[in-house]
Amino acid sequence: MPLIRGSKGTTSGEISAPHRAALDSPDAESRWTAARALAGQADAVPALAAALDREPTPRVREAMMTALIRIGNAASIEVILPYLRSEDAGLRAAAIEALQALPDAIAPFMAPLLSDDDSDVRLLATELARNMEASEATRLLCELIEREHHPNVCAAAIDVLTEVGTPEALPTLEKCAVRFAATPFLPFAISVAMSRISGAES
Amino acid sequence: MADTATPAKARVLVVDDSSLVRLYYRTALETAGFEVKQAINGIEAMEKVLSESFDLVIVDVNMPRMDGFTFLRSLRSGAADVATLPALMISTESGVQDIAEARMLGANFYLVKPVAEAELVRHVCVLTGATL
Amino acid sequence: MDDSKGGSSHAAHISPEQVQRFCEFIYRRTGMLFTESKRYFIDRRLEDRIAATGSSSFQEYFSLLRTDADHEIEHLINSFTVNETYFYREDHQFRCMTASLLDAIVHQKEPGGTVRIWSIPCSTGEEPYSIALWLMENWPQVDNYNIEIVGSDIDTRALNAASEGVYGDRALMRLSRDVVSRYFRPIAGGYHQIDEGLRNSIEFTRANLIDPQDMRQYRDFDLIFCRNVLIYFDDASRRLAAENLYDCLQPGGYICLGHSESMSRISPLFRVSRFPDAIVYQRPEADHG
Question: What does the alpha-carbon distance between residue C104 and residue A171 come to, in Å, rounded to a whole number?
Answer without folding.
Answer: 60
